Amino acid sequence: MRALSAFLFHLLVTPPPSSAIRIHPLTRCHHCATLPLMVAHKNSGETSPGTVQFSPAVDKLQEFLHSNPSDGWERCWEERLTPWDLGKPTPVLQHLLQTDSLPKGRALVPGSGSGYDVITLASPERYVIGLDISEVAIKKARELASSSPNANYISFTQADFFTWEPTQHFDLIFDYTFFCAIVPNMRSAWATRMADLLKPDGELITLMFPIDDHDGGPPYKTSVADYEEVLHPLGFHAISIVENELAVDRRKGREKVGRWQRTMTVCSL
Ligand SMILES: C[S@@+](CC[C@H](N)C(=O)[O-])C[C@H]1O[C@@H](n2cnc3c(N)ncnc32)[C@H](O)[C@@H]1O
């Protein structure tokens, strides 16, 4: 219970530490011309840094996820206990699209929730699948997407990320608040699934949150090292890891954009 409380605390509280930019030394970065140029952005209406919001809904959410390990997420959606939901796409996606630095082709958003990011990513050049274990979430996302001008390039699937077997691989996978939603002992399986689902030259984007020094948050607290620990053994390397300057205010300073690809063996003969 303490661990989950810490996760929820991370979702709702905002202590912003300093930023960092790390580029893999052995990798040519075809994105670094754009990503480090991200500018600070004020999202009106967002909670100010330092503000703490607690509500009975949070207690209920904790209770649901703990007392219903098999269908806790579904029950959260049924009860509209979705404090993680921004109610809009995460702003950095728009920036990445504007700078045309995202792979086209087929994209996957695991743990897609309400589907805002799926809808934002979709275009005639990019077909996007939103995957969520919750029937309610998928229904909500489908409704939302139905009025999108890119509705033809979107589909939502209700399935468990860890067992789902799609028929084709992906050029891009975008993970936002999915890694931090799964229990840590599933993180290796998460990485294996990413490797299985991506094309060999596909790109994994992890919008890593929450990243900070909060003590006692283990199960759902994340760090760059947590990602590296499970991705490096599978041959993924970071193309770039940068502070997300476009994070909504209450998450500012605790989000990093990680862009990963698998190491390709180059034959020099
Ligand atoms: C913290 S929410 C994030 C939702 C969305 N990415 C967002 O940023 O608003 C995590 C989502 O993952 C879904 N989920 C949890 N476990 C899952 C699994 N094993 N397979 C697919 N979806 C899962 C939940 O239903 C929930 O919608």
TrEMBL record:
GO terms for molecular function: thiol S-methyltransferase activity. Residues 1-20 form the signal peptide. PROSITE patterns: SAM_MT_TPMT (PS51585). CDD domains: AdoMet_MTases. Gene3D superfamilies: Vaccinia Virus protein VP39. One of its GO terms (biological process) is methylation. Pfam families: TPMT (PF05724). Keywords: Methyltransferase, Phosphoprotein, S-adenosyl-L-methionine, Signal, Transferase. The keyword S-adenosyl-L-methionine applies. InterPro entries: SAM-dependent_MTases_sf (IPR029063), TPMT (IPR008854). PANTHER family: PTHR32183, THIOL METHYLTRANSFERASE 2-RELATED (PTHR32183:SF11). This is Probable thiol methyltransferase 2. It comes from Spinacia oleracea (Spinach).
